[in-house]
Structures are given as structure tokens and as C-alpha cells.
Amino acid sequence: xxxxxxxxxxxxxxxxxxxxxxxxxxxAKFLHGFCTSDIKGLQPGQGCEAFLPNIKGRVLGHIFxxxxxxxxxxxxxxxxxxxxxxxxxxxLIREDVQxxxxxxxxxxxxxxxxxxxxxxxxxxxxxxxxxxxxxAFGNPLDxxxxxxxxxxxxxxxxxxxxxxxxxxxxxxxxxxxxxADEFETRRIEAGFPYYGRDITEDNIAQEVARTKQGxxxxxxxxxxxxxxARLDAMGHTNKELRRVVFEQGANxxxxxxxLAADTEDEAGVITSVAPNANAKGExxxxxxxxxxxxxxxxxxRAAVNMGIVQ
Length: 310
Fold this sequence. Notes:
There is one protein chain. The protein is of the alpha+beta class. 19% of the residues lie in helices and 33% in strands. The protein contains 8 helices and 17 strands. Strands 8-9-10-7-1-11 form a 6-stranded mixed beta sheet, covered by helices on one side. Strand 13 and strand 14 (266-273) form a beta hairpin.
């Protein structure tokens, strides 16, 4: 790879993310009954995106799930281990399933860019949500394909003791280091929601606007299926998550109301604000908009600042 190619690959430290390993002979069958995606159909090396709903279809977790030879791994935003494990554990009776929190012992680097697969030697074409097990500096390294920033991206799950060595090695071959604020800005510009910020237990799964990626309507029964299926039959939600780009100088904050462009009608609410502006001085936000305001190209405002739904 050329210096120019590797310089376009960015490394972010996302070691605060939650990682849970699920083992036991009944692991796939058990998780299948609590996720919105088809878990039983996953083969080693495959993965999926899914919601963990409660009985009312409200979102308890938004996860990536990866299948290894002997276990399944749940990967999500920070601080979710203490919520997800007790939720699943309460339904365990006689199933051969073990829920093991790995967040304290394993961290994650996120490597992203058009040529990231080539750098990580998965150029054979690791599909979205695919995963492979490698080794780095004598430690197990799980490479998991997740395009968080609208370009090829890979979560590297590594023992925490090897995080800095691995990061330094990536930088040594020409990758650039990305900051937390930069990642947050790019995440919001890409419109990718984070649980605990843009998604909470107040939301039903379809409101997150990732139905195609994270909900199967053919997989069979699971906890919370009935309200999710009923909403699907109705044909639309009352609100959905959207990305909005506001003009230069916008004074924006999480929790601020979004209004119609020309009236005082409430259009929605902001859930994430990019820390940095783009080259034009515009600020991207993520928020929930009522259905009639959620069409791409619709003009809305926050206070006096105008924005365009993307």
C-alpha cells in the first residue's frame, strides 16, 4: 500500500464499547427469541444488526451480533453490559447458555477508510457484519465489519493490554489517528444512531429508521414481536430518526426542539449534535422528526437557524 492510501485510513479508539460473549449449546436458539434479526441462521464468520426489544417492542438495546466457532458476541455502545446481561439472564431456565461480560478485559479500535480491508488483509471481501479471527502480537484479534461512518469500517476487538501496541503499529504504517470529537462528528454526519443518545427505551424499534438493517419480519416469534409487527402492518411510524444539517452559526443543543420552517409547529427534537462544523461551517444533528417533516429536502429550524433534512 502507498503512503497516500494508508493516510486515508483512520484509527479511532472505541474501547468504551460494550462486549458480551454468549456461550453454550443453546446460545443461538436462546438469543433468537430476544432479537429482531435471524440469529439461528448465522454461521461462524457471519453477523447481523439487531434490536433487543422489551415485551412492548421498546428498544432495550441496539446491537451488532457476530458468530464465532464456539460463541456469539454482542457488541454495542458503552455502559450496556449491566443492562443487557440481567435482561437476558432473567429468562434463562434450563438452557445451556452463559452470558459473559468482556468489556473490562477487551477494548476496540475502529479502522475505517476505503482501503481499510486491504490494510487488515481481509481483501477477499469481508461482507458487512462479517467477522474473522486473527492474531496480533500474540493476542487474539477479532475483526468485525461494521460501516459506522458510511465507508468500509472494522471493529478490532483486542485484549486491553494490546490496544496501545496495536494502535501504534497501525499509525506506524501510515494510518492517521482520529479523535473522539472527530468520530462523533463523522458518526452524526453519517446519520448512525448510538444507543443511550439517539435510541432509548422510549423508542419502538421502527422509529430508529434502521428497519431494513435490523428487523426481520419472517424469523418467527421473539419477545416484543407483536407490537413491532402491528406497527409494520399500520404502514408508518409517527416519528423517525433523521439527520439534519443546519446552517452556519447554528446554536444547537441536545434536547432542543426542531420547528417547522415557517410556523411554530413542533417538528421534532435533537438527540445528537456534531462537535465540529463541516467545511461550509454547517452543523449536522440527529433527531426524531414527525413523519410529515421527515422527508429529505424538508426545511426546518431550531430557534432562528434553518436546516435541511437529509
